[in-house]
């Protein structure tokens, strides 16, 4: 009788300890998950905002160059090919381009259909007024507008254009000064620099078109119907969404100089999987020790 009572008492003690263990493991897991999520979001936020600030500074610098060129006397004169002023304008564009390795070319298109750009002979059927960068500038007169990626006229390289109208005349803008930035150099600015292997960053414009992405095949794709685009409700913030059953954590920041948005994302599984494994391991070890007892 005493042995049976002792066995029942031991059983109750073990059950009580197991319940307590499960309770404390639950608290540990919940605390760890919340702490990890907070730390991950903070890390993602800081990384995202740092990249956004660097990209903003980059485009502000180039926008400043465009504003200088838009007021240059040689550019405003629309010098004719072969003239001293024309060669001076080409040299001016080349000097500005050479000063920034991320810039492919500076150039200017005019209201009469002429374009001035280094290392390019204008074909008879080429009209700069029909190019996206020219049209974008006319639709956003007086400010630098950064357009969508396009194929360059020289070597078909994918480029990111920025453009600004020249001085106004009675007929409207006399022309547009523009710049092409290489996509490769800009993509390097958003490369993953944190400790999460699943993390990456990309840039979209206000229409939902992907402008920069580690996967070049994503460039030019419109994601306005994607959950990540629908999460844009302010100038910066974070949210979670699901893709193929997996949760993704995202932080975004507006790049004010371009009115684009920089996203940095990471898989929740990479953040929480180590916690789950650690909790299950600790629980299993504790359970074995209790059963031995």
Question: What report would you give on this structure?
Answer:
This protein is of the alpha+beta class and about 290 residues long. The protein has a domain at about 60-180: 2-Layer Sandwich (Beta-Lactamase), CATH 3.30.450.20. Helix content is about 45%, strand content about 25%. The chain contains 7 helices and 13 strands. It has helices at about 1-70, 75, 85-100, 130-140, 185, 225-230, 270-290, and strands at about 105-110, 115, 145, 150, 160-165, 170, 170-175, 175-180, 200-205, 210, 235-245, 245-255, 260-265. The strands form 3 sheets. Strands 1, 2, 3, 4, 5 and 8 form a 6-stranded antiparallel beta sheet that branches. Strands 10-9-13-12-11 form a 5-stranded antiparallel beta sheet. The model has no long low-confidence stretch (mean pLDDT about 80).
Keyword list:
alpha+beta, Beta-Lactamase
Give a brief rundown of this model.
With 293 residues, this protein is of the alpha+beta class. It contains seven helices and 13 strands.
- Largest sheet properties: 6 strands, antiparallel
CATH topology of one domain: Beta-Lactamase
**Considering the protein shown, what is the CATH homologous superfamily of one domain?**
PAS domain
Order of helices and strands: HHHEEHEEEEEEHEEHEEEH
Mean pLDDT: 80
Rg measurement, Å: 29 Å
The rounded distance between the terminal residues' Cα atoms is 21 Å
At CATH level 2, the architecture of one domain is: 2-Layer Sandwich
Strand % is 15-25%
């Amino acid at each position: 009788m005493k042995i049976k009572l002792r066995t029942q008492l031991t059983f109750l003690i073990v059950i009580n300890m197991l319940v307590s263990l499960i309770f404390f493991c639950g608290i540990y897991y919940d605390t760890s998950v919340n702490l990890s999520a907070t730390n991950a979001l903070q890390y993602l936020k800081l990384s995202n905002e740092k990249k956004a600030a660097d990209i903003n500074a980059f485009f502000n610098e180039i926008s400043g160059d465009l504003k200088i060129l838009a007021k240059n006397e040689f550019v405003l004169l629309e010098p004719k090919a072969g003239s001293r002023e024309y060669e001076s304008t080409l040299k001016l564009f080349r000097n500005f381009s050479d000063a920034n390795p991320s810039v492919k070319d500076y150039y200017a298109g005019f209201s009469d259909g002429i374009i001035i750009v280094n290392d390019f002979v204008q074909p008879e059927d080429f009209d700069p007024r029909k190019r996206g960068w020219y049209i974008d500038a006319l639709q956003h007169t007086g400010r630098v507008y950064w357009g969508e990626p396009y194929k360059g006229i020289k070597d078909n390289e994918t480029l990111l254009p920025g453009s600004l109208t020249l001085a106004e005349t009675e007929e409207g803008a006399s022309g547009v000064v523009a710049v092409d930035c290489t996509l490769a150099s800009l993509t390097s600015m958003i490369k993953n620099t944190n400790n999460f292997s699943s993390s990456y960053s990309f840039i979209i414009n206000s229409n939902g078109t992907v402008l920069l992405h580690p996967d070049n095949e994503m460039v030019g794709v419109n994601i306005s119907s994607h959950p990540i685009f629908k999460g844009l409700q302010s100038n910066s913030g974070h949210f979670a969404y699901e893709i193929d059953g997996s949760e993704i954590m995202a932080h975004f920041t507006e790049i004010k100089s371009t009115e684009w948005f920089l996203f940095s994302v990471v898989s929740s599984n990479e953040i929480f999987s180590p916690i789950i494994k650690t909790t299950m391991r600790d629980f299993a070890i504790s359970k074995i020790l209790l059963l031995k007892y």
